Amino acid sequence: MLTYARSTTAAAVDGLTLAELDHLHDAQSNSIGALLAHIIAVERAYQVMTFENRLLSPEENREWSIALQLGDEGRRALRDRSLDDYLDELKSVRERTLERLAARDDAWLEQSVSVAPAVNAHWAWFHVAEDEINHRGQIRWLRARLPGRRAGNQST
C-alpha cells in the first residue's frame, strides 16, 4: 500500500512547474509543494519513532516542524523547490522505509511504539499511508483548480 500510494502521489504531481507547486488557491490553502513536504516530514517522523524508538531531536524538530504543521508558516516557508527535488526526497525517504520494514517481521508490527505506547507499529505505518492518501486527494483537488489548467488535464 505504501508503494501504491507513493506511485499515485507521483502521478498526481507529474509535470507541475515551480509556480504550480507554490500556488496558493486561497489564504487558507496549502500549496501542492507544501503538501509534498508534509508527506516527506510525516514519513521521516514515523521512521524516527518506529525504527529508532525515540522522539524527534531538537534539530529534527526545527528542520521538520514547519512541514509537519503547515499553516501560515508553511505557506510562507515551503516554497521554491522543484518537482524533481520533491520527487527525489519522496523516493529517498520511501526507500529507507521499505528497507527498514523489510528487516522486521510481523511480530514487530504488533509491538507498541515505545514513544507512543497507545499505538503499535502497524497503526503507525497505516497512518503514514493514510496521511499520504489524504493529502494526495488534496493535491488532485488543488491541481484541478490551478490557473490555466482544465479540470481534465491532470494525472490520476
SSE blueprint and pairings:
Layout (H helix, E strand, L loop, with lengths): L1 H12 L4 H5 L9 H20 L6 H12 L1 H7 L5 H20 L3 H5 L1 E2 L2 E5 H24 L12
Antiparallel strand pairs: 1-2
Helix pairs in contact: 1-6, 1-8, 3-4, 3-6, 3-8
Summarize the structure.
The protein has 156 residues and is mainly alpha-helical. It has eight helices and two strands.
Descriptive labels:
156 residues
Describe the 3D structure.
By secondary structure, this protein is mainly alpha-helical. It is 67% helix and 4% strand. It is built from 8 helices and 2 strands, in the order αααααααββα. The protein has a two-stranded antiparallel sheet. The longest helix has 24 residues, at 121-144.
Provide the β-strand percentage band: under 5%
Strands, count: 2
Distance between the termini: 16 Å
Mean pLDDT: 93
Shape descriptor reads globular
Protein structure class: mainly alpha
Helical amount among residues, as a percent range?
55-70%
Question: What Rg is obtained from the alpha carbons, in whole angstroms?
Answer: 16 Å
The H/E string reads HHHHHHHEEH
- Major beta sheet summary: 2 strands, antiparallel
The strands making up the biggest β-sheet line up spatially as 1-2
